[in-house]
Amino acid sequence: MATWKRAFYTLFIAELLVIAGMQSVTPFLPYYVQDLGVQELSAALIWAGRIGTVSGLAMAVSAPVWGYLADRIGRKPMVVRSMLGGALAMALAAYVQDPGELFWVRCLHGILSGTVTACVALVATSTPRAHLGFALGGMQAVFMLGGTVGPYVGGELVELVGFRGTFLVASVCSLLGGLMVQALVREEFRSATASEGGVGGAARPGLFRDTRRVLQIRPFRLLVVGSLVGQFSFALSMPVLPLFLQRLAGGGEVVATAGKIFGLAGLSGALASLALGRYAETLGFRIVLAASLALSALIAVGQGFALDTVQLGGLVIAGGAAAGAVRPVVNLIMTRCVPESDRGVAVGVIASASAVGWGIGPILGGYMGAELGLRSVFWLMAALFGLLGAIFWTGIGRDEAGIVAPPIDPGEE
User: Fold this and answer.
1) Is the dihedral of CA 79, 133, 337, 188 positive or negative?
2) Which of 37, 67, 72, 328 could pair with 277 in a Cys bridge, judged by C-beta atoms 3.0 to 4.6 Å apart?
3) What sign has the CA pseudo-torsion 27, 30, 34, 36?
């Protein structure tokens, strides 16, 4: 089997374990906050928002550093680091005693983890260009598939062994994933310094200069803005959606029901990611992104008007498909406009922008839900999705000018 295929399939299985483990607990953090003693709805919303925010902001700070290191010591070590770091943080979360301790554990998780970014960087630099659409679409599909299996199983696990036991199961999954990658993936890595300077290599500029260089690429700047706004929009609902489901259900125990809904949303997103990974370039990046974001806006409006768990659940599942259609296209555009030697930094910058959005969104969503009502959050999401669709529609242009594939390295085929 070709080296890139072995790496891809190993990463597929390992990342499925890691994401499924993580998503078996992450969607239920607002319920865990309640389990830790915060019973009042507005207080639970605010704590859930803070916990979501600190993880995202910690990742925003650390992601460019990990991306920079990936270009110098290899992408595989960053994948292993992110999986083992996630295992440590999940294990610690099982033993917290109050929301304040959970806040700091989630901060540590944001710093050490980031498996999605690490895996995308490794796949983007180890896969021949002819297979990049399939490979990146496949990785996005496994991210979404893990988001299917995780909540579905996690909802049942929480009812069987409690939140703490579920965190420990998630930790074991991340540990197994990291060990698989370490044992089975071989990376043919050429350091950025050696590849640019001939014998011995001339030292390349530092992190900030590398970042400045990739930000000079216009389509890449568009991706950075889009990733920030897009993740911010999705993150607004993170502390709100589980508690909105709970309210529509009459305040009863809804962890298992929420798990099934979030799981089916992940499945619909996985299918959309896999399909669009293959056909996005044929259909056109501009059309796919604008249509998916317009659909996301309409779905968010519907969520704001939902009257029961069936309506809200159906719309959440449909929203998963719309979200899944966006992410592989962003990754494809990145591989077309950023040279291979800078893709680690580029992925890190996008991850950092996404993490900023993911960091700011939950705390704002929590406060909005507490002060203006839960439904107001979905209407703000709809407006932001519409704005982002317009940004991509006008920014990419009808002929998708500027999205140019970088030169193929010898032997990449």
Assistant:
1) positive
2) 328
3) positive
